[in-house]
Design a protein that fits this description.
Length: 263
């Protein structure tokens, strides 16, 4: 079902043009809410991971071009289209390679469920920058992290920009929210807080790789991890650095830690 749009004020495309991230999460027409995926490549990754499309918005040329297989595979999905000039009025649209897809969220998995067979876990604690969230997920997928947990003070991984930065890898790594660090200990995990303290051990300390189950905790840039989180961790870990540099961007630090501590 293809519908041509002549105005960006058309209420049928409010999903793409008017609703905030919070409003998308609270959509009443689906129990779990909606998120927006951008570009055919990322949309295909989401579809392969089992996410269901709700609606597509694209330039006319993509209907029989880059998005043809997506449209043909979901004949009941409404497809909204218009001229490039019209659609470019949508904030950020020109950065999406011409295709946006509104998709239904899945139910959040239970913590015990995704930790059951995991050995290396990343915990994202109070990281709110969507670019960093996306980059951490991309490294987690590439470097063997089994799942990602996020504190409630962190950014939603299904934020539009986080998905784009992750190149769709957010759909490949199991994730859920973490409310209690003790839950990790109950599941047999040791925790490693990435932080600079007098008690920090080096990332290449052999004791870390000896851990059968390890959760690597990454904190926000600037303030870093809360002191309480550091004190409760089994290990406090630093990355050895040179030229008097004392820290890395959290996404870069995560990639280094994931590589060094892989199993």
């Amino acid at each position: 079902m293809i519908y041509e749009i002549t105005s960006i004020e058309d209420p049928r495309i409010a999903l793409f043009s008017k609703l905030t991230e919070a409003q998308l999460r609270q959509r009443q027409d689906t129990e779990q809410g909606i998120f927006i995926a951008e570009s055919p490549k990322v949309i295909r990754v989401a579809l392969q991971a089992g996410y269901e499309p709700s609606a597509l918005l694209c330039e006319k040329k993509h209907i029989e071009g880059d998005a043809a297989d997506i449209i043909q595979g979901h004949p009941d999905m409404p497809v909204y289209t218009g001229t490039r000039e019209l659609l470019s009025e949508l904030t950020g649209y020109t950065l999406t390679r011409g295709v946006l897809c509104a998709m239904r969220r899945k139910p959040e998995p239970l913590l015990d469920e995704i930790l059951k067979n995991a050995r290396r876990v990343c915990v994202i604690d109070a990281v709110c920058d969507t670019t960093n969230i996306g980059a951490i997920f991309r490294s987690a997928a590439a470097l063997g992290i089994d799942c990602v947990l996020l504190t409630r003070s962190s950014c939603d991984p299904l934020n539009r920009r986080a998905i784009r930065v992750s190149m769709g890898t957010i759909f490949l790594v199991p994730w859920t929210w973490l409310d209690d660090y003790e839950a990790l200990h109950r599941m047999g995990f040791k925790t490693a807080a990435m932080a600079l303290t007098d008690k920090s051990i080096s990332l290449d300390d052999p004791i870390l790789k000896q851990q059968e189950h390890l959760a690597i905790i990454m904190g926000t840039e600037g303030e870093g991890l809360p002191q309480e989180t550091i004190e409760q961790a089994d290990f406090t870990v630093r990355i050895p650095m040179y030229h008097q540099v004392d820290s890395l961007n959290v996404a870069a630090a995560a990639a280094v830690a994931f590589w060094e501590l892989r199993v």
